[in-house]
Write a structure and sequence with these properties.
266 residues, alpha/beta, TIM Barrel, 10 helices, 12% strand
């Protein structure tokens, strides 16, 4: 499996505090079946002053230690990026890294307040050739009254990343409800751990994959953690990647199947 959202780099944001914790997280990920992990620390001016070159340097240092320790985990660069002025310029000049230098990048909205001009800002990023992957919409406190906003963003070309722990109940019943809704209605493009430690917010995908498989079938469960993440890292254009089947599409498909069956019987 491939995990495209983690805070495993030690000491540069609110994720792993020490190298020892980062190594423990890496071992947990490998034990869970994860072979590739994106290092995506926060970039938030005034709080987490990370940038592309610095993240690359920290990633190289940790990869070197993983290799020395014999931990078979490949690290790639990314960032958990907040919607701030200058974002587009930062993406263009490399100060803000995309996922493995592709057109895809993680975009984290405010947890507590809808960003002003949110839809317009996302559209501008898409029009510039990028594909924002909006992180953990199910955990935002304002999702209840703005769920249609996320559906419109998907129509524009944005992708959605649901947190594995939300589906397993780690973040409580509210996040679980919205995580299941995004998943079951076909509005989840990838699952990721958003791991921050080796304690509570751990780099484990398998339990959420089992939930996805039960809800959507094995093929789509693998798309969420294997196929789409791999195609992202290969920078395949989004219109060339099979997208989730929405609930309405599934209903129409079932209706068409039923009509064909009745037609054959008649």
């Amino acid at each position: 499996m491939i995990d495209l959202h983690s805070h495993i780099l030690p000491g540069i944001d609110d994720g792993a505090k020490t190298l020892a914790m980062a190594l423990e997280m890496a071992r947990m990920a490998v034990d869970d079946g994860i072979h590739t992990m994106a290092c995506t620390p926060h970039i938030y001016p005034g709080m987490y002053m990370n940038d592309g070159p610095g993240i690359e340097r920290h990633r190289n240092n940790l990869q070197r230690v993983l290799d020395m320790q014999g931990i078979p985990l490949k690290l790639v660069v990314g960032a958990d990026v907040h919607l701030v002025p200058g974002l587009l310029d930062g993406l263009r000049d490399g100060r803000i890294p995309t996922l493995h230098r592709t057109r895809y990048f993680l975009l984290e909205p405010s947890h507590t307040t809808p960003p002003p001009r949110f839809e317009d800002s996302v559209f501008d990023l898409i029009a510039a050739g990028y594909t924002p992957v909006i992180t953990h919409p199910e955990r935002l406190t304002w999702v209840e009254n703005h769920y249609p906003v996320f559906l419109r963003l998907i129509e524009q070309g944005a992708w959605m990343q649901v947190t594995a722990g939300a589906l397993t109940g780690m973040f409580g019943p509210r996040a679980r409800y919205w995580g299941e809704r995004f998943l079951n209605e076909g509005h989840t493009h990838i699952l990721a751990t958003d791991a921050h430690s080796s304690g509570r917010r751990v780099p484990v995908l398998s339990a959420a994959v089992a939930i996805a498989e039960q809800a959507l079938g094995k093929e789509e469960a693998l798309n969420l953690v294997v196929n789409r993440p791999r195609l992202i890292l290969e920078d395949v254009p989004p219109d060339a990647i099979p997208l989730p089947e929405t609930a309405s599409t599934r209903r129409n498909g079932l209706k068409n199947w039923w009509n064909r069956l009745l037609h054959r019987k008649n």
